[in-house]
Amino acid sequence: MDNKTASHELCPALSGANATARHTEHQWWPNSLNLDILHQHDSKTDPFDANFDYKEAFKQLDYQALKSDLQVLMTESKSWWPADWGHYGGLMIRMAWHAAGTYRVADGRGGANTGNQRFAPLNSWPDNGNLDKARRLLWPIKKKYGNKISWADLMILAGNVAYETMGLKTFGFAGGREDIWHPEKDIYWGSEKQWLAPTKNQDSRYSGSRELDNPLAAVMMGLIYVNPEGVDGNPDPLKTAQDMRVTFARMAMNDEETVALTAGGHTVGKAHGNGDTKNLGPEPEGADLHEQGFGWVNQNGRGVGRDTVTSGIEGAWTTEPTKWDNGYFHMLLNHEWQLTKSPAGAWQWEPIDIKEEDKPSDVEDPNIRCMPMMTDADMALKEDPEYRKISEKFYADPEYFSDVFARAWFKLTHRDLGPKSRYLGPEVPAEELIWQDPIPPTQYLLTEQQQQQLKQQILQSGLNQAELIATAWDSARTFRASDFRGGANGARIRLAPQNEWPGNEPVRLQKVLSVLEQIQASFTEPVTMADLIVLGGNAAIEQAALNAGVKIQVPFLPGRGDATQEMTDVDSFAVLEPIHDAFRNWLKSDYAVQPEELMIERAQLLGLTAKEMTVLIGGLRVLDTNHGQSQHGVLTDNVGVLSNDFFVNLTDMAYTWQPKDENSYDIVERQSNKVRWTATRVDLVFGSNSVLRAYSEFYAQDDNKQKFIDDFIQAWCKVMNADRFDVS
């Protein structure tokens, strides 16, 4: 061994900085509970000062100047990455589409809201080929406007401006997306171990008769939606149509929106496959240092302009690819099409008979005419009966098509931004859309005295503490930090479908709501049910703390509105139904994933840290709020008292923990061998996992009884107010 090799062998930095050079604890013990996703966006990764407020920074943005700069950018072709036909519109639209198109409605993850396309794995997905160039083209503008515009907002705005410069009247634009500064570790993109793996593989995301695993939306690892060459790369428009229907539904789109988005996305720009894909270098995340974050660099030849290779499919869809018009449907519906292969070897469709003047021109030489093409997804709009009807309707009414597309594009690019109260900027549409989960504003203020009067009435109403706390929790727990949906604001727990969800215990729920409605009707001042539900939970917690000898007041933020059934899209809200809730020790059914792993996912969606999750579990157990009044994990002799008994008894070595079945345990006194309590996996994980046990021991300490109460209330209020975007 020479000295150079020896020094590398001994260098501690090589075994610490390079993730592949060392075995992590989760590689040594793969079944251990991974808490990392609860802290993935720690403030240590954020370069902004703690007091930075993006909303305030955005207000200082010269919005019209930014749009003007973007308009100029569209036609300022760069030699290092020349614009097709002298216009970057198609590239910018694809970047915005692919930033937003990862959204899936099942868990609200993905989408454009965090600017995550800048990081792995998205920056290196095969379907995102050469979008690194789009972001580099935007960099001078991002540099100029700095902190006043996030990457997440800028990428979507660039797509909007691209459409506008090509003639589309867009529906609007809203800012408010804040950038992350580290790859997202919480998003499950699929179990495949290779990009674009055939769906018949052993680790496929499909089961049964092509049933796509939840919460996935795309058909393959590395694709945004469907395979443009056909199912598993085998052209068959009718089969592709079925994939499209499932995929777009999981992106919260119906058939009309699916046709509009597909057609509108392909009305402009082109696909790139004029070359051999074998000549392409690694994706950005795998490229050498000297590439400086560029990927897919062509190692043989120009690799730009007409010689660009991205998807492998080659050609434009329309005669004038830099113009918003109805040319897509004219081309699709007025020609017969045949299968062919691109120069890169990808399946695509070409017209059998086409006039020379109907062909699009070459991207670099307007005197050269090129054959247009359609993907298998495009052909699906012609061959599938329902898609065909919609396509013909759009073809016959271009204005209707433009309006439907503009609205669908706005929905695609804003679906995960949350309610309108989060929207920023001068182009926010005035119209309120049902997918924005509208909530009427309130016109009242509850004084401190009025709050005390209401709490007294609630506590004297005959409802017990557990009923009030469980109802408030169930109302708030639907919140998802992934797309800012759900939560207590709106009190949709009163409405279909939430009022019949098994997890909400409909009988108990209706009992509580009936009593609260009587209090609402008898109160001399206006108060919403949304506020009453949360206030009832707060009052019960204050009483539970008083039972422990501690007089506290749970902070309350009034001003929630009451949504109506007409404001509630039942199908859209169905995906928010809880199928598990570790905080109330409940599983709707048995699942392949362990209950404690489901707990981590729910805590992450609620925006909780591991500490907050821990203290909430411990507090809710002793408050007797388990689903169905189950006694699992209620490790106290003082039920209904807000105490640290859960942690005290969990960490006490006077007991042993004996399995009864897969998710049930007896906690047995060592001395008498008597069963003292029972518990589930999510209870015992707070004693078995080393990190969670450290938190449990902390809260079990004699000197942390008050600290436990304070932290529980703080975490409780965080959940109750998670959706209060209407206040600063």
Description of the molecule:
By secondary structure, this protein is mainly alpha-helical. Helices cover 38% and strands 5% of the residues. It contains 25 helices and eleven strands. The protein has a three-stranded antiparallel sheet with strand order 9-10-11. A two-stranded antiparallel sheet has the order 1-2. The protein has a two-stranded antiparallel sheet with strand order 3-4. β9 (655-661) and β10 form a beta hairpin.
Q: Estimate the mean pLDDT confidence.
A: 94
Largest sheet: 3 strands, antiparallel
Number of helices: 25
Q: Name the quaternary structure.
A: single chain
Given the C-alpha coordinates, what overall shape results? elongated
Residue share in helix = 25-40%
Features:
two-stranded antiparallel ribbon, 11 strands, 25 helices, about 725 residues, about 40% helix, single chain, mainly alpha, disordered N terminus, elongated
How would you summarize this macromolecular structure in one to three sentences?
This protein has 728 residues and is mainly alpha-helical. The protein contains 25 helices and eleven strands.
List the helices and strands and how they pair.
Blueprint: H1 3-10, H2 12-17, H3 25-28, H4 54-59, H5 63-74, H6 89-100, H7 131-145, H8 151-165, E1 206-207, E2 211-212, H9 237-249, H10 255-266, E3 270-271, E4 315-316, H11 327-333, E5 337-341, E6 347-351, H12 376-383, H13 385-396, H14 398-414, H15 448-459, H16 465-476, H17 506-522, H18 529-547, H19 570-574, E7 580-581, E8 586-587, H20 595-605, H21 610-622, H22 645-650, E9 655-661, E10 664-669, E11 675-679, H23 681-688, H24 690-700, H25 705-720
Antiparallel strand pairs: 1-2, 3-4, 5-6, 7-8, 9-10, 10-11
Helix pairs in contact: 5-7, 5-8, 6-8, 9-12, 10-13, 10-14, 12-13, 13-14, 15-18, 16-18, 21-24, 21-25, 23-24
